[in-house]
Amino acid sequence: MADCFSSSVEFGLNLSKRVYYGKGMAPSPATAMERSAEGFLPTAPMCYAVISDPEKVENPDIRSYQPYVLGECDPPALIPLQVLGVGMEVECSLDTAFVTVTGKWRVHCVTARSTCDCQVAIPMGEQGSLLGLEVDGSGRSYHTELISLKDEKDKDKVAKAKDGYFLNSRIYTIKIPQFRGGSVFSIKIKWSQKILFHDGQLSVCVPFSFPSYVNPVGRRISKKEKIFLKVNSGGATEMLCKTASHPFKELLRQAGKLNLLYEAEVLEWSSTDFNFSYTVTSNDIFGGLLLQSPFLRDFDEREIFCLYLYPGNSQDGKVFKKDVVFIVDISVSMKGSPLENTKNALLTSLSQLHAQDTFNIIAFNGAVSLFSSSMETATQEAILNATKWVDTNFIANGDTNIMLPLTQAMKLLEKSTDSVPLIFLVTDGAVDDEREICNFVTSYVSRGQLVRTPRICLYCNHYFLEMLAQIGRGHYDFAHDLDAIDFRMQRLFSTASSVTVADITIEGLEGLDSYELFPTHIQDLSFGSPLILSGRYSGTFPQSVKVTGTLADMTNFVVDLKMKREKDIQLSNVLSKRHIDLVTAQAWLLKSEELEEKVSKMSIQNKVPSEYTCMSMVLVQSDEGKKAPEQFLLQKAYKKLSFQSLEMNNIQKLFLGGWSLGFGDVKATAENLAPAIKEAKPPEGLLGKAASTCCSRLADNCCGMCLLQTCNFMNDKCTIVCTQLCAALACFELIKCCIELCDCDCL
């Protein structure tokens, strides 16, 4: 998908050379950096004109009288549109960043008498989730909204949703129909992404590097570029700035709060991604406890609480020694780059073990193979032997059975006492007995055994992994791109293996009438990640709670956290995505329709995509310069008050796909299909679909040489009759294809 998009942009840039800007004027050509290994993928929020008919390509203000071009562009060319204005706001709260980008684009490459669709590309940072998109221009306005998948009237359209999709794990695209050449439209995009934590630093990176060819052509007029940054750590601890990509001016500095502004007159738009890193200054473990009332229209009327712990300075702190069992899937679906990348990450992880750590490796498909019958001390000799064993035994074949190696790993770790036992599971498959596996681990933990199960997965049941990690007090990760396996697995291992406080409990919540904690099983505090617990409660919250645990030197850890009413951070927004993911995992495990309905409500209320909702673009059309129809304004007000929808005849919807991770594909795993087979493909045109169906059937059942030899024995009249018959059959087949492929309701 990404390669096809990049090729279409390259084709569009070549096609845009037809546009005449005036004597001696031309857009800046693509630089060598912009023609990087990723091709022409967007490195900032971008808009593209979707060109199927090259004859439309023309300056809407100046006729160039270019020669007529025959044919059509298939797939359509994508011409990057000129940016007339852009600004960004970044709000960092706890471990989540909310990004809002506003900008204006002009359809500079289509004749004034023609129209074209526009493709909006939104590159996001780590774990990016689109929260909203608003488009306004040419008498039309669009905005995104989430609808429940239980809406019977929309199910067929949702299944065919193709106006929005991911190019890769971080770039989402949306097609907006029909903009007139020369028109100017504005866009407001909002998304959330995770703030990364490494070596005591929190960092946020937002794609904001615009290519040179989106700068308006003409006189070099200065343009205003603006970035506003707001940071709130939630506590009273001082923050220190470490790195900043743009020269910011300080507007506000208070304990736990920081506001910065970058504003400048520029000749070209930003060619640098937005990067900012900071530390919350403390050498010791510290935390906070935040309370907040739900907002007026919240369907859950219980109060909100959030408890967080930061690990302090990793250079001064001690970590637990580790007993690690690596469980690696070597079924045939892992063949190629998935298994090679996993192998590289595994060997790197082994090299990071300390001399007091122990390890073992289990390779599994339908059967299991152990590196050693017992845990091995991480000596250089043992690691060298493990490397040779991996090279010999990591051969992809067979099917997938997770329960057997997981059971053996737990038996290997039964004797762990003063160390952190880690089960590191790497698989790309979904299996039939996932719920049985979760129940098995639950019963094992409830017997008093300490099992922490961090893991990474390529393509399988995301929520199975999340539930299994939650039960085992561990972590999980999910690699959407095969190239990211090595990096993400090493990062996950680093987080899971740097535990500084284990066996954490919270005392003081027993006096509440009721409470719900996310996650239900509390993870360990690691130098690789802060610990954030949250939930809802009824009753009177205590003035402080006591957090206890065990330090790496086996002494007790105790800290009292005083309650604070939070006013600046909207906790429901910060916590919504993690709550939705955790409740979705519970709904999957328990097969609970009640929890599914809860997820749907949380998703619609907080505008966060989920498995049980679908994102749509709502079109409201009015005369240019006038307000939106009164019906629509009434509908919008009603929905805000009741979270229900009123159907209006003059409001159109475009359904956007790509936001569902799914619950794994057991059938694909059973058939040993590799993840690459399930990669999304670009939509084909109507004739392409027809040809791929009809012509392929004919080619499969007819030999070309036999057909030619048969025609030699036919007289002219017979040839004419056959030709007419074939033409008639072709017409019937074409009509059939049109009926099957048409997405509208006319057929």
TrEMBL record:
Matches recorded under SUPFAM superfamilies = vWA-like
Domain of life of the source: Eukaryota
Q: Name one Pfam family in it.
A: VWA_3
Indicate the segments forming the VWFA domain, all copies.
Answer: 323-492
User: InterPro entries from the xrefs?
Assistant: VWF_A, vWFA_dom_sf
From the Swiss-Prot or TrEMBL record, give the protein name. Answer: Inter-alpha-trypsin inhibitor heavy chain H3
